[in-house]
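Reading a protein record of the kind used here takes only a little practice. The integers have meaning only within a learned vocabulary of local backbone shapes. With that in mind, consider the following protein and its fold in token form:
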Amino acid sequence: MPKPKVERLMNLVICLLSTRQFLTAEKIRKSVDGYDDSASHEAFSRMFERDKNELRDLGIPLETGPAPGYAGTEGYRINRTAYELPDVDLDTAEAAAVAVAVRLWGSPEMMSASQSALLKLRAAGAQVDSDVDAVPVSALPARTRGSETSMRKLLEAIDAGRAVTFLHRTVPTAEFVTRTVQPWGVVTLRGRWYLVGHDVDRDATRTFRLSRIAEPVEAIGPENVVRKPPGIDLRAIVDEVTAGGSVTGTAVVWVAEGRALELRRLGSEGEVRTLGDRPGAILEIPVRSWEWTARLIAGHGGDAVVLEPESLRARVQDKLRFAAGISGDLAEVAP
């Protein structure tokens, strides 16, 4: 019986996270549980191409590069530095972005599949990180489970081409309303997960934040009826909707060299500057939400320091104090 798409994608993520080498498509086919169901090389190529696009739509940093030992052959891996997030206090949607692959890694359902994939990689001569088996799987708060379960149900419905129905509220204080949606895809943007699709009741394209969808999500109608229209850019739709708030100011932030990649994507890089004994650069970041920006910067710990404005600097210090369980002023780091 063919593997469900969600399980195959999780297997692929685990495989590409477990090595720093670029793996060829053929090695991935032999190592990842779910691809061995392919009837031919052409069928595998089509499936793998769709899966790569799915991972990129989900915001997973899939990289391509030369595969070692295979001259002129393209390989694939996930940039772990860009993929992994620091240990910070996350809200429901932000935690879901970290939780999806990490929690399944240690679950009974996935343990045998992940270990099998690692053994296959080692047998094929791929260099697997020595500490990959010891990666800690943090217990996530119960409030994150709803979004994780909802995303799994939504991806299954998208893969089957079925419509879904669920309860949704536009803001945390609003009443839940039943929505019937033809789902096109799920994307993540700035740490939050969004469903994009055609709202049947409103006859319009709509986005829904997963943290505001109540369980259960139910698939309805026949299979292979719902498909994303050609030429639709899901990420652009979410970006347009979430950018509705106007820019209220600019944050000037120092970031360490080679670190804080999420902040670098949001801002424009200016002068190179050494802070203490660490080289880095100055970023100017447009701000729509000061609270969200403070949480994002605090999540990078000592790799990001707010220079201006002072009010944002104070917010970040408060969050770092809370995370560290201390009171009083943090030691100031002079720019």
Summary: The mean pLDDT is 76. The chain has three domains: 5-139, 143-242, 249-324. The longest helix spans residues 41-57. The first strand starts at residue 23 and ends at 24.
